[in-house]
Amino acid sequence: MSTKRFCEPEKWNGKANRAIGNKEEVKALNAYLDVLQNQVYDAQTHLIDRGKIVTALALRDLVSGQDQRQRTLMTLFKSHNNGLEELIGKGVAKGTHTNFDTSYKHTEMFLKTVYKIEDINILSLDLEFIKKLYHWYRTVKKLYHNSALKYEENRIGLR
Q1: Which residues have a Cβ under 8 Å from the Cβ of 17 and sit 6 or more positions away?
Q2: Which residues contact 5 (CB under 8 A, 6 or more apart)?
Q3: Which of 11, 16, 47, 117 could form a disulfide with 52 if both were Cys (CB 3.0 to 4.6 A apart)?
Q4: Residue 111's closest CA among 98, 124, 99?
């Protein structure tokens, strides 16, 4: 992973992996490298705490935020519904899958009409998003309060 920073080779200490000197630009570079190193240590702890294998790729994805950018609402929703479909007749009723599928379709339509997007990062979901979706259910889909809440519940995984 590149830091996108530059240092003159003669001002670099390979053993310490830091720039040599007292100038402000050297101090800034070293401080940046310290922060980056701490982020890598934090990412390593995060992976270990979750029982995951620590690899350079996993560390890079955590430090760069790549792992978070890949998690989108509709992708996760679709994955959930596919897993639910496989469980029909094995403890899950067909109607349950149908309800979640309907909730998926409503959410997909909401994203397209209100936000003009196909999918949304789960980190973007907040109270304002939920309020807009509830309002959309009540006004556009003309659902009653309890039905709107049921679809909300399905979408955010409260069941």
Answers
A1: 33
A2: 29, 32
A3: 47
A4: 124
